[in-house]
Every structure is written in C-alpha cells, then in structure tokens.
Amino acid sequence: MRKTMNFNFKWAFSKAASEVPKAMPNKWDWVNLPHTWNNIDGQDGGADYHRGTCYYVKEFEKMDLPQGMLYFLEINGANSSADVYLNGQKLAHHDGGYSTWRVNMTKALKEKNLLVIAVDNSENTKVYPQMADFTFYGGLYRDVNIIVTEESHFDLEYYGGPGIKVTPRIQGKDAEVEVEVYVTNRKEGQELYYTILDKAGEPVVEWSSMEEDVVMKLPNVHLWKGTKDPYLYTVCVKLIEGEQELDKICARFGCRSFQIDPDKGFILNGERYPLRGVSRHQDRWGLGNALLPEHHKEDMEMICEMGANTIRLAHYQHDQYFYDLCDETGMVVWAEIPYISKHMPEGRENTISQMKELITQNYNHPGIVVWGLSNEITISGSDEDLLENHRILNDLAHEMDATRLTTIACVSMCDMNDPYIQIPDVVSYNHYFGWYGGDTSMNGPWFDKFHELHPDIPIGCSEYGCEALNWHTSEPAQGDYTEEYQAYYHEELIKQLFSREYLWATHVWNMFDFGADARNEGGENGQNHKGLVTFDRKYKKDSFYAYKAWLSDEPFVHICGKRYVNRVEDMTKVTVYSNLPEVELFVNGESLEKQRSEEHFFYFQVPNVGKTVLRAVAGECQDSSVIQKVNVFDESYRLKEKGAILNWFDITAPEGYFSLNDTMGAIMKHEQGRKVLAGLMAGMQSQMSGGKAMSFEMNEGMMKMLEGFTLVRMANLMGTAGVKMTKEQLLAINEQLNQIQK
Questions:
Q1: What integer pLDDT is reported at residue 717 of this predicted model?
Q2: d(Cα 175, Cα 204) in Å, to the nearest integer?
Q3: Are the beta carbons of 252 and 324 closer than 8 angstroms?
Q4: Helices (H) and strands (E) in the chain, counts
C-alpha cells in the first residue's frame, strides 16, 4: 500500500559550495523546506540577487523510511533546474522550476544514504523564464516527499502526474464520468475498483473492472457552479490483487460545462457568467516563493473577500494546494507556463515539457478553463520560429486536453492583425493605458476596435493596473505612485471594462505586490507595487475596496484615504466605496450629505478645519477615519525615489516652460521639444544593442506607450533596463527644455 513521508526537515545548505559533496558537510547552514536563497536579495532592488547553483544535502537511513518495494523522491518545486544524486550516483535532471517531478531511488538506496539536490537558477538560453518582471527565486521552495509503493502501483513518473485522469461530460440531468488510470508493473489478475463519492464522502457510484479506462454514469448530477456553488465529487480507484489492496489513488473533480462566446463572454453551465478577477504571483515579503499552506489560504481568503470569481495564475504553474483552493471556492482559473517576454530558439523543448507537466498534473481541476501558451512573448516582435513554437504548444494542449481552450496574454503594442493572435482559441491583452502612456479613457475604445476588427475572436483583458505605495495627494496624476491615483485608475477601468459584455475575462494586475528585483521605482526598490494588497498582506489599498464594491455581495462601506490624514486644502474630496445603494457621511457627528450611486463610488466635498472625524454609514455598515488641516503640504506623503537619478524636486521648472517633469507626448507636440527629445533618445539608443534594452525593442508601439511618461520618470525606468544617464546629462537636457515656451 502506498505511503507518503514528508522530507522537509533538516537539510544542509550551501551557496558557496562548488561541487557535489561526497560526505555530509559539517559547516553548512541547516534549513527546513520550503526554502529559497533569494528571499531577501530578490526583493531589495539592484537586479543583483544570487543566481547560480546551490546545494541541499540530507543524510537518512532506509530503516527510517516506510516499508515497501519501490522508493520515489517527489520534488514539488525546484527553481529552476535541478540534479539529484544519491550516494554519489546521479539519478535525474529536471528543467522547469514550478512543477512536480519524481525520481525512482530504489536501486541506488543503501542502508545509510547521502542525498544531494543541486538547484540552479542561473541565466541560460534553454529554460524559461529568463526575462520577466519578477524575481526567479532559487531553491527547494515547495515540499519534498518520499513515496513508497508496491511493485504494481499507479504511475508516478509520467510528467509528475497523479496517475489518474477524470473527464466528466454533462448529459442532461446526468453526467458520464470517464476515469482513466495508469498502472505501472500491472500483473495478470489484478483488478481495479472504482468509487465516486459525493461531497459528504458517501459513495454514489461503485464499479469493478479489469479495464484502466471506464465510463460511469452519475445520475442527477450536482453541477460545479463557480463561486455560487463549487460542488466537488471525489473518485477513488483501488488496485486489488486477491484480498490485498496494493495501491489507491483519489482525485476530486467537478461537473460543469463552459463556452467562451465572442459576443456574450464566458458562459458556465449554459448561463452568462462574467469573469471578473485578478492575477496572482505567489511570493511574499521576506519569504519569496517558500510559502506554507496558511499563506496560500490567506491569499485565497482575500481574493474571495474582494468578490472575484476568476484568477489568472501567472506566470507559471502554482502550488497544487492553491489549485485545490480554487476548486473549493469556485474560482475559474487561467493556468499558464512561464513562456514569457523573450522567445529563446533553444528553449522550445522546455516549453513543450513544461506544458506537458502543467496539463498532466492539473487536468482534474474543474476550475481551470484555459491553458495559457505565453505572456508578452512578442515584446520584441514575432518571427516564424516563435509562431511555430506556439502552433506546437496549441496543438499539444488540444491533443492532451480536448475539454479546454487555449489562450495568450498579448503585450499592449502587439498588432491586432499579428498572426500570433490567430493561433489560440481565445485572446487577452495586457493594457496599461493611464499608467504606461496614454490615459485611462483609451482602454475601453481599444477593445471595441479589436472586437469590431475580429468579431469571431473572444477578447479579454489579462493585465491592467498601476502602482501605489504609501504616497498621497489631493491632485492625483499618472505616474505619481499615490494610493489616490491608483484608486482613480481602477474606478475608471471598472466602469469601462465591466460594462463591455463581450470581454470574456478581466484580470487585475495584480492582487498582491510582488518581488521584482530589477525594479527601481516608487520609492521602494525591488518590488512591483501594482497590487491591490501590499507585499506583506497587511494592508488592503483603497482600490481593493473599489472591486469589493462591484463584486462582493457582503454588505460593507469603506472610507478611502485613511493614510492621508494631513491635508492643506480648505475643502477636500472624500471618496467612499460601498456595495449598498446609499451612503450618508457624518462630519464630527453631524450629517453632511446622503448620496445614491449605481456605480458604488460616492464623492463628498468636506470642509477641512482643524481635526475632523468622518463616519460613513450604509445600511447597517459603517466606517470611520480622520483628517487634519495643515498649512503646508506634508512632505512625508510625497514620492522620493531611492537611487533615482533625479527626483522631480531636483528639477527647475519655470512656469510656462517645459522641463523634465513634462510628458514626452506634450514635449513632442512642440517642434523645438522634438529636437531635444531626439537628442535624448539618440543617447539612450546608443546604449542599446541593436536598438534594444533588455530585449525591449524601441518600436512605434513602445514609443506611443512612452508618450504618457514624464522624462524624469522614463529616465529612471530606463536605468532599470540598463540605459544609464548621469544627473548632469539630464540637468543639461532640462536646461534646454526650460528655454522652450509651452
């Protein structure tokens, strides 16, 4: 009978070792798994986190393991490549840092054993990802187990899969459930016993067979209905020899049908079911990717509190526990491989193996509806090798899974007629109009244009968002990193995207701030701050509550700007969010005004005199905050970037004249301004190899996006991309701009 033993405790670890140890080291660090060596340096900025080969070593005796015939090492996440050695013998190599894989250790086992796992997250040209806006944390950052089986057992070695494949098909009020199992070393006369259990664990169908592929009828099927009713069945299969149970596996599944219509969007079990939700990165402040179950659970609880019904699990395979949570809570899931940003001609086999692992290991999850082929892969343009890679992946996904669709996340400047978008079943775009260039009003019309041009292609929004830290203002503006601008941005995007029924899904980028060690912006380096919740999960930004107002059925009211206390203006705007139709605002105990809003956003003008206590009431719900009148703007609320070449306050900006604080778009409208910009771009271009920085091509689409950037912001961001300009160079350009009248 199969037994599983957790193997997380007490590993010797070294970043400094240069070769596989032949004996147990006595001066290495002791660590427990899950573990990463980049939980600090991968989140502090500088693009200098340790990337290389590190070693994990563990001694154990065979007598301490469960008894059985065969012994498998199960590794649930080793980023990004790894080699396994047992007693000096190399047993396996694996490429891909986000999936489960197993190693048969049986023949190499001795009574006393030395196990070494060499994990490597160094740069290369074959294993994805290699370029992306997140940290590639190295380490054994998920559980490691020992699985012991009899000689005859359900398969453990095919792409890390569970050895069972469950395919329910709705037939009126009933369902046909096809169950395929894969048995290794099966012997004549061994029988299979199938049982389907309901949610309470009671058997509803039982079946005995010699076949490894059976179809069972499930009468009066209880459908999996997303967040409304995420009902799950369980199928268990036993391998029997005479009276002995040799092995047993179980898999949960849900019975549901879906389609994605180019006009009606997502349809679940025959009814429109608009997908409105978030994307998620799995890492945390101080932990990196080395998470425990309680961290995953807390993430899911916040996503559910917000009222989302879909999650894009970006940009790689996530922990099986989190997929289980998605099934249990009814989340509709986009699952993808880390084929991202930079196409590598030598990486094709790795995209294929990672797609095989993703589908094999996750086929049984009812929440998953699309397999993601790639993300922003055409950022440097597309060529025939890239297109062929996608055709192969698309065909592979359909061959392995005829029940689901394929999708891609296109970079914003990807042409609507690029042959790349013709490959998958459905398409989504990553757009940041209103943050990276353009303005918020451009988002909805862009999708209308795509829908008109391609009426038969379902279109969605796979990423949109903007960054916010603990900076504040009463005059929010694009690029200021304030919580107020982020709230404004999402208010506008909610109204534009949620009103377009043809959008098959919308996914906010991102639910949580996450580690991106190359980033140097917003005043807190090493992170992407587009999250609706902070990296440590301690603070829900105001924009979180904007979505809760639209998506959650749980009554609430929220006053925005709680961290923005000191204000200089005599009348100040106070925004309140609620999913109830009417809000009354009280100022120092007296009613100021009642408002009704179909958009769930309420805006009050409040006299700002001395200390003011605010209380918002909606139905039975209430929320409070405080504002304080000050004579001079509180500089602690103003962005000051660490390590920036220049901050806005270093720049002279005579009234009526241009400066580095103006946007590229505004300067380009002036003939003299265009000449100054041409010189600036020439200086930047000279530092790029073949017109590229970090493989980002300075094409027309990229230039259009940059029009919304102030020059000082662009200079700081381009520094992250490897283009360096000195303070003196930028101030000289600013002096030229100061001579040009607006």
A1: 67
A2: 12
A3: yes
A4: 12, 44
| Phi-psi region at 643: left, alpha or beta (left = phi > 0; alpha = psi -120 to 50) | left
308/511 Cα distance (integer angstroms): 10
Nearest Cα to 2, choosing from 321, 252, 238?
238
For 77, phi and psi rounded to 5 degrees? 175, 110
Tokens of 443: 């988002």
Taking 80 as the threshold, does the pLDDT of residue 691 lie above it? no
Q: Is the pLDDT of residue 477 over 50?
A: yes
More confident residue, 37 or 678: 37
Numbered ranges of CATH 3.20.20.80 in the chain: 259-553
Please check the confidence at residue 110 and state whether its pLDDT lies above 80.
yes
Tens digit of each residue's pLDDT (9 = 90 or more) over 245-262: 999 999 999 999 999 999
Q: Residue 458: which of 411, 498, 421 has the closest Cα?
A: 421
* Residue 554 vs residues 300, 582, 619: alpha-carbon distances, Å: 16, 15, 12
The strand pairing partners of 611, in sequence order, are 628
Question: Rounded to whole angstroms, what are the CA distances from 328 to 232, 233, 300?
Answer: 7, 11, 10
**For residues 357 and 498, what is the distance between their CA atoms, to the nearest angstrom?**
34
The DSSP line for 125-144 is SSSS-SS-SS----EE-S-E
**Residue with tokens 């404004």, as numbered in its chain:** 488
> Start-end ranges of CATH 2.60.40.10 in the chain?
164-253, 566-633
Dist. CA 551–CA 639, nearest whole Å = 31
Burial class (CB in 10 A: 0-12, 13-18, 19+), 656: exposed
Residue holding tokens 């694996």? 94
| Rounded Cα–Cα distance for residues 23 and 354 (Å) | 33
Residue 635 pLDDT > 70, yes or no?
yes
**CA 577, CA 552: separation in Å to the nearest integer?**
12
Q: In angstroms, rounded to a whole number, what is the distance separating the alpha carbons of residues 311 and 465?
A: 15
Residue 131 near residue 695 (C-beta atoms within 8 A)? yes
Q: Where are the alpha helices (DSSP H) in 307-347?
A: 320-329
Q: Give 360's DSSP letter.
A: H
**Looking at residue 705, what is its pLDDT?**
64
**CA 381, 384, 386, 390 torsion: positive or negative?**
positive
Q: What is the pLDDT confidence band of residue 689, given thresholds at 50, 70 and 90?
A: very low
For residues 585 and 574, the answer to whether their CB atoms sit within 8 Å is yes
Mean pLDDT, residues 488-498 taken together = 98
Q: Which residue in this structure is represented by tokens 């990553």?
A: 430
Which CATH number applies to 3-149? Answer: 2.60.120.260
Coil, strand or helix at 82: strand
Helix (H) / strand (E) element for 551: namely helix 542-551
For the domain bounded by 259-553, which CATH number is listed? 3.20.20.80
| Separation CA 180–CA 304 (nearest Å) | 33
Assess contact for 482 and 255: CB atoms under 8 A. no
CA angle 671, 674, 679 (to 5 degrees): 140
What's the CATH superfamily of 164-253? Immunoglobulins (2.60.40.10)
Tell me which residues are annotated as active site: 376
**Angle between helix 711-720 and helix 727-737 axes, rounded to 10 deg:** 160
Spatial contact of 139 and 75, defined as CB atoms under 8 Å apart: no
Strand partners, 567: 629
Q: Where in the chain is the domain with CATH 2.60.120.260?
A: 3-149
What 3-state class would DSSP assign to 257?
A: coil
Calculate the average pLDDT of the chain: 94
Cα–Cα dist 212/228, whole Å: 34
Q: Is the dihedral of CA 322, 327, 330, 331 positive or negative?
A: positive
Q: What is the pLDDT of residue 702?
A: 58
CATH 3.40.50.1100 fits 566-633, yes or no: no
